[in-house]
Amino acid sequence: MKKFVYSSSLALLGALHLFASIDGTVMNRTSGKAASGVSITLLKPGAQGMQTLGSTLSGSAGHFVFEKDQPGGGPQLLQASYQGVTYNKLLTPNLPTSNVGLDIYEATKSPAVAKIAQHMLLLEPSSSQLSVDETVVIENNTATTYNNDALGALRFYLPPAANGQVRISAQGPQGMPLPRPAEKTDQNDIFQVNFAVKPGETQIQVAYVLPVGSPLTFRGRVVNVPGMPAGPLRLVVPPGVILAGADVQRIATEPRSQATIYNVKPAAGFSVEVAGRGSLRGGEEPASADDNESPGITEGPPQIYRHLPWLITLALAILAVGFIALYRSSPVRSPYQK
After folding, report:
1. 248: Cβ–Cβ under 8 A, 6 or more apart, which residues?
2. Pick from 41, 48, 50, 47: which is nearest to 22 by CA?
3. Could you tell me if 182 and 166 are in contact, meaning their C-beta atoms sit under 8 angstroms apart?
4. Following DSSP, what letter does each residue of 46-94 receive, concatenated?
5. Cis (ω within 30 of 0) for the bond into 215?
6. What is the pTM of this model?
7. pLDDT digit string (tens) for 289-335?
């Protein structure tokens, strides 16, 4: 009987958790102190997009509280806005809603706090087009966030043959990839991506396609954000594809995919001859620019919606496991069982 009462109590506590309040503290990790007066919004993903459940300001000790969350469980999102930068905290059903820590940082416009740790261009030629995927990993080892809309987090060269069609996604530390627009600069064919580079690792991907010619020549430029340290640029091609030219040097073969890696010699511009065909996408054709009906320089909705079914399934699975455990531990689940 005691075991049944204990199990029932656990079930009641689990049900109350679905209707519990949410409280916590906003911490400024740059100063190491609690942050007051920070705007915080509680959001919930849904079929119609992000639903705002409430907004508040952190108190004198950085404390905040939302008296009621959304009935029915499921993931919720705490979003703090500070110095023009948004900081998120995802609350899944298995996480406590009390004493939640929400971290923010002081912002700086100096690009020197960040550096480009990796810079790669993946070239995938097919019979009709050349798919180009540029991946840039930016490291910020300080306790401040770099945010400068005038300079951007990344600058890149978009060949005129791409006709302005480009897809960009940016992912911050412990975040999800978000679509970003390409912003024009005062230089021809040079664009920038505005994105807050928070402490940790940020990854930005730029993808576009070019028509092929015979012979196939790829011409690119090395473009950096002024004042941001940058490492070498690497070109990567699938097995069966060979690059040739005075501006590149073969340096390695990736063991798992057998992709060939080339180093681009330091120069403002470079040119390589591309021979062969291949893809690292499991044999599928590289995405065509025609597959993207809208121009890549327009901003789309956050990709958190693409993960919504998974998050809801996870929440339901957690609840199911709890009910199964309760059923198996109850002495009255069968009148004939002892």
Report:
1. 235, 262, 263, 264, 265, 270, 272
2. 41
3. yes
4. ETTEEEEEEEEE--TTSEEEES---TT---EEEEEEETTEEEEEEE-TT
5. yes
6. 0.76
7. 444 433 344 334 444 444 445 444 444 444 444 444 444 444 444 34
Domains defined for the chain, CATH in brackets = 2-104+304-329 (2.60.40.1120), 111-300 (2.60.40)
pLDDT score of 20 = 60
| pLDDT tens, residue by residue, 182-208 | 999 999 999 999 999 999 999 999 999
Written as six digits, the tokens of 202 are 């940020």
C-beta contacts of 245-248 below 8 A and 24+ residues apart: 245/270, 245/271, 245/272, 245/273, 247/271, 247/272, 248/272
Strand partners, 103: 27
Residue in the structure block whose two tokens are 């100063």? 31
Closest CA to 193 of 232, 154, 250, 138: 154
Burial code (b: 16+ CB inside 10 Å, e: under 16) for 59-94 equals eeebebebeebbeebbbbbbbbebeebebebbbebe
Strands (E), 158-199: 167-171, 178-179, 183-184, 190-193
142-173 residue pLDDT tens: 999 999 999 999 999 999 999 999 999 999 99
Q: What was the pLDDT predicted at 21?
A: 84
User: Is 107 in contact with 145 (CB distance < 8 Å)?
Assistant: yes
